[in-house]
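Researcher: Please translate sequence to structure tokens.
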Amino acid sequence: MSIEDSSMVFAEALSRAHKPYRVRVADYMAFRRQGYLRVKSLVAPDEVADLAAFTDDMMAGRATIPGVPAPPADISEAERRLHYERIHMPHRVCELAERFLLHPRIVDVLEALIGPDILALQTMLFFKQPGQAGQGFHQDSYYIPTQPDTLIGAWLAIDAADEDNGCLWMTPGSQHEPIYPDCDGATRQGDTILSDIDSIQAASHPDVAVNTLARIALDYDTEIKIEAEPGDVIFFGGHIFHRSHQNSSQRSRRAFVSHYCNARSRVPWNHGLPYAGEDNGGAANHEHILARGATHLPYAQPKFGTPCAANTPDIYGERLDDHRVKSMMGDDNGFMVLVPHDDVDHDH
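Model: Translation complete:
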């Protein structure tokens, strides 16, 4: 995408010209009941094509992300396609990644599910070419603690994802599980206050004989494969057990994955660095971008100026247009909307 095209996208966002996505009550309930929600065609085809073209250029050596080594010039085309597996936190050095982290329609859904105040935390770009590995059972809040725990992931399909090329698998009902602590030092996160909780080891390892969280996950009767088309976004909470398998097809299964939390949660996490605490009051919120709403906690500005609550609060900031207290409620058409309380004096 050219600089001129990029500027045009920003101009449209600043006028809130995107078609907002309104979450239905039934979808809100499904997310709570199942632990995940797939929203079809949330991101437009031409936008997904930008991501696909960018990853193609990376594998061909025509484009790079700062700090991420490009494939050597003397390797074969097949080796080039396998050079990358996943890239963490590209939004901090890449305008395109920042744009999708703060994509207004993705944040529209987040606003209804965990908002109205949204903090954008993490991005990952998955390549998953033929033969590349999946990821075993894990819980995202095991890696990214938020306090209170409001973590949510948004998994954007760049390619069609199915069982053959390694789609996501979710375990409905496990969103009610605690976060299992480890006994191998991978994370400080875990609900150790519970008297009888088991420690686990090798979370995310694809071998169920090695990953001891699998023993708990496989006790559930149902595991659902979540197939997706390009532009579909799968939202899932931080507690749900999920995994993916190796890409056994001859097709790619690329995905752009972001994580968020309610902006009023404390976040003692910043990828690649020790947990915050000693130097900044136990939180790294100042490293993460305020995507929507408002917060009493510090937050970062987007490096590339993508419109969001942090830099365009008049559009994406706090939505209270008066001083009446409001809550997310269902309207007569079955949509989730902010509704004023009738009697502020009796709010509790």
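Researcher: Any highlights?
Model: Residues 1-14 have pLDDT under 50 and may be disordered.
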